[in-house]
């Protein structure tokens, strides 16, 4: 798993700020609720791609598997929350995903390429945050977050492979454009704590 994490650290433009980790530890209920929302949203994104691109067999197979895994993770987070007496409630979304999606092109094949790149970045950042958080959490939650690393690492790779296929070649230049946006979203202060927020502004 160390190799996969090393690859993710090389892929992402920056590490999660220490301040965000402190925010997460002080807001663990919100972290779990938002984590559940993120898993559900990831499954929804995979399903929407399956509905939109019905003639792309590779995409259909990878997104079907991904949607099942994300929904399983959603159920696991809900179970952890139930044991801890944390209610699953509505939360306003972080500006993170919306900030990345603002740069997505509107016409295919560019649109598909960009949506897949955004998916890869979100999965990679999730993986990086699970790894950053795990050493600071109680044993049960640390074990769970460590267990998610392997699948999240594979998801980001699946998204990147599909993006290259949709583009008919390398996507590094496009990835670099989205990474510049991602770095700002991760490092600049946020007004509300979320799983993909920047550090809280005080």
Automatic annotation (TrEMBL):
<dbReference type="Pfam" id="PF06175">
    <property type="entry name" value="MiaE"/>
</dbReference>
<protein>
    <submittedName>
        <fullName>tRNA-(Ms[2]io[6]A)-hydroxylase</fullName>
    </submittedName>
</protein>
<dbReference type="InterPro" id="IPR010386">
    <property type="entry name" value="tRNA-Hydrxlase_MiaE"/>
</dbReference>
<dbReference type="InterPro" id="IPR012347">
    <property type="entry name" value="Ferritin-like"/>
</dbReference>
<dbReference type="InterPro" id="IPR009078">
    <property type="entry name" value="Ferritin-like_SF"/>
</dbReference>
């Amino acid at each position: 798993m160390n190799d996969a994490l090393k690859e993710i650290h090389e892929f992402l433009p920056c590490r999660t700020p220490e301040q965000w980790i402190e925010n997460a530890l002080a807001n663990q209920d919100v972290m779990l609720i938002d984590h559940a929302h993120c898993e559900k949203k990831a499954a929804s994104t995979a399903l929407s791609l399956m509905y939109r691109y019905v003639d792309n067999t590779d995409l259909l197979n990878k997104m079907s598997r991904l949607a099942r895994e994300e929904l399983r993770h959603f159920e696991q987070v809900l179970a952890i929350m139930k044991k801890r007496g944390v209610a699953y409630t509505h939360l306003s979304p972080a500006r993170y995903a919306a900030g990345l999606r603002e740069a997505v092109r509107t016409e295919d094949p560019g649109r598909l390429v960009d949506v897949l790149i955004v998916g890869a970045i979100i999965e990679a950042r999730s993986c990086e945050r699970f790894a950053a958080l795990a050493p600071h959490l109680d044993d049960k939650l640390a074990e769970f977050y460590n267990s998610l690393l392997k699948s999240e690492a594979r998801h980001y790779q699946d998204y990147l492979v599909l993006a290259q296929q949709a583009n008919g070649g390398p996507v590094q230049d496009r990835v670099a454009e989205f990474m510049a946006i991602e770095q700002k979203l991760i490092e600049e202060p946020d007004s509300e704590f979320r799983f993909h927020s920047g550090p809280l502004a005080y």
